[in-house]
């Protein structure tokens, strides 16, 4: 599990280092932040999809939305949507301001 997560994090760092556009840098920052919050749980993110769903909120801020797959291929596999707000400083470095998972509650039993 950790190897897959490390590969995703490594790819995102490589993508950012290659000087991709702002959307790509923002997607890499979101991916890294999600990795920190997963506490070793495996996850998969489509960085191209995440970058494609970036919307500029202000001159230095982007809001990105996409879906993360948790525990892919396992019985506990789950998909969750999320929002990630990224700010760029004067040097063009991206930092995550906000990360929210929009958990799907449709699978929960209704209270009786």
Protein described:
With 112 residues, the protein is α+β, with helices and mostly antiparallel strands. The protein has one domain. 34% of the residues lie in helices and 34% in strands. The protein is built from 3 helices and 5 strands, in the order H-H-E-H-E-E-E-E. It has helices at residues 2-17, 22-37, 47-52, and strands at 43-45, 54-58, 61-70, 78-88, 94-102. Strands 1, 2, 3, 4 and 5 form a 5-stranded antiparallel β-sheet that branches. A hairpin with a 5-residue loop joins strand 4 (78-88) and strand 5 (94-102). Helix 1 (2-17) runs antiparallel to helix 2. The longest helix has 16 residues, at 2-17. The chain is elongated.
Q: What coarse outline follows from CA principal-axis ratios?
A: elongated
Q: What's the N-to-C terminus distance?
A: 38 Å
Helix-strand string: HHEHEEEE
**Contiguous uncertain segments of 5+ residues:** 9-19
Oligomer: single chain
Proportion of beta-strand residues: 25-35%
- What's the helix count? 3
Mean pLDDT: 83
Number of strands: 5
């Amino acid at each position: 599990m950790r190897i897959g997560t490390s590969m995703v994090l490594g790819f995102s760092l490589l993508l950012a280092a290659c000087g991709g556009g702002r959307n790509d840098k923002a997607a890499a920052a979101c991916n890294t932040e999600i990795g920190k919050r997963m506490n070793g749980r495996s996850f998969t993110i489509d960085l191209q999809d995440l970058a494609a769903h970036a919307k500029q909120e202000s001159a230095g801020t982007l809001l990105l939305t996409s879906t993360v797959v948790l525990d892919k291929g396992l019985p506990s596999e789950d998909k969750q949507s999320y929002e990630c707000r990224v700010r760029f400083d004067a040097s063009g470095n991206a930092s995550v301001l906000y990360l929210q998972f929009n958990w799907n509650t449709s699978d929960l039993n209704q209270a009786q």
